[in-house]
Amino acid sequence: MFGLISTLAEILSSHWGRLLDGRQISRDAKVARHLVRMVVALQDLCVRGEQLLVLAEKLVDGEGTPETSAEFTGMLGRQAREVADLRSLLDDSKDLMATIDAQLYLDLAPMADQKSGLLTRWGRQVSLSEFSTTTLFFLPVDDLTRLLEAGRASARPDGLGVDRTAYVAAVADSIRHTRAREVRDIRLATQSARDQVRGEIAAARADLARAKDCCSTLREATETAVGPEAMARLRRTLLP
């Protein structure tokens, strides 16, 4: 999950300058609102991701209680819902963004496609097992990079094309390899498995750090473009 968040933030960051330069963004409230909503959604995922890692450490170290397990599953479920909402936001924004940068949704399609996208696949994994390392960490960043490249070969402006066989097969193969070495329940991990999970937690924190850096850059660039007063108004309308 953490690699997904980081990779998505990096994809958006690579296009953000063109989104801001392609229009008079300060005069286009609709574009600005979409951009800020994306940043806010990503930041929220990062914050909740950090909380999940703290709970995961307690469960792995044997310090978890039934209440800790319940809090973990509740937070994971909320994270899954928020990931689905972000995927929908990206999908709803594709026509608007295509008028500024046609390549953006081609790059995002393997991530955001409703049927076969990686965000959707992670959501399905949550429903299979809440405490497995495959659910918590999903796929390594190297695998995600390879799958994005495979998916872009069949990407279209409206999502993945009908002929997505090679991409779907590559996703299934990557998940199968990940499951072969997963810890099925981090609460019951052996000592050697605990060391493995701690290593994955450290990698996840590095992924979150990259995502947070991207979010900061995106937020600052957007505020520079729209101005601090407009940014403040947008925050008030978007944040609870």
Would you kindly provide a written description of the structure presented here, covering whatever features stand out?
The chain is mostly helical. Helices cover 78% and strands 2% of the residues. The protein contains ten helices and two strands, in the order H-H-H-H-H-H-H-E-E-H-H-H. The chain has helices at 2-21, 29-60, 66-98, 103-112, 118-128, 133-137, 141-152, 165-180, 191-226, 228-238, and strands spanning 155-156, 159-160. It has a two-stranded antiparallel ribbon.
Summarize the structure.
Helices cover 78% and strands 2% of the residues. The protein has helices spanning 2-21, 29-60, 66-98, 103-112, 118-128, 133-137, 141-152, 165-180, 191-226, 228-238, and strands at 155-156, 159-160.
List keywords for this structure.
240 residues; mainly alpha; two-stranded antiparallel sheet; 10 helices; globular
Strand order of the largest sheet: 1-2
Q: Structural class, please? A: mainly alpha
Instruction: Give the beta-strand count.
Output: 2
- Helices and strands, in order, run as HHHHHHHEEHHH
Architecture blueprint of SSEs:
Blueprint lengths: L1 H20 L7 H32 L5 H33 L4 H10 L5 H11 L4 H5 L3 H12 L2 E2 L2 E2 L4 H16 L10 H36 L1 H11 L2
Antiparallel strand pairs: 1-2
